[in-house]
């Protein structure tokens, strides 16, 4: 590994974790790698970074912090493929090798740290760092649509006022739809009436003159068709008229109970007009009163 300097590990610790990890990678002379595809290198970098945080937290001098990183990398490399018994033996031998580089307190803290991390989770470390992983990664690119730009606050409306306007608009639209339905029905009944009259006339004999009784029946049937169409139209118009009146009543009720916007519009109070008039106008009034 590249030998870290005390100043280097100090800079790593002073950064936030993402920037600190990246700075540590550069100090170790590692090439850039994909965090998702190369999980082994990513976890190893995390382990080295955590050893710096541990050493600083325990009050190690910066010189010793750099040695802790070196100690960590050597331990992970030397225990690769070993049993847990062999790993404990290797850890004890390395602690003896570094005995002259740390004081007793820091050496014990270092022993506890690796016992509670690497040794306690040894199989996990071996599984992740000791063998190649078959990574199956699916990457999906999604387009993120930014929300629309909100309107200025000056153009905003009170929620209750907006709801009231929506209700009034819905009633107005319903009234327009009712009137449109009447026009559509008139057109449908007109076409149906013409069709029925055509059927009635086509049933009469064309080549010979009609007898009085046949003519009367023909006229009677034509009048009956007209009356039935008008009857149906009149019934529908009456119902639509009641419906429209009901919609008008609802709209009028909503208008009378319209919410007051917040803040309410400024209106002049009685007596304010007099107070806002110019002093000259007030003097003129007083002079006229004296003359009287």
UniProtKB/TrEMBL annotation:
Please, which domain of life does this record's source organism belong to?
A: Eukaryota
Residue ranges, annotated region (Disordered): 258-292
Q: Which residues cross the membrane?
A: none
Against Pfam families, the record matches this protein to: CLAMP
**Spans of biased composition, class Basic residues?**
278-292
Instruction: Report which residue ranges the record marks as coiled coil.
Output: none
Protein name as it appears in the record: Chromosome 8 open reading frame 74
Could you read off the lineage of the organism from its UniProt record?
Eukaryota, Metazoa, Chordata, Craniata, Vertebrata
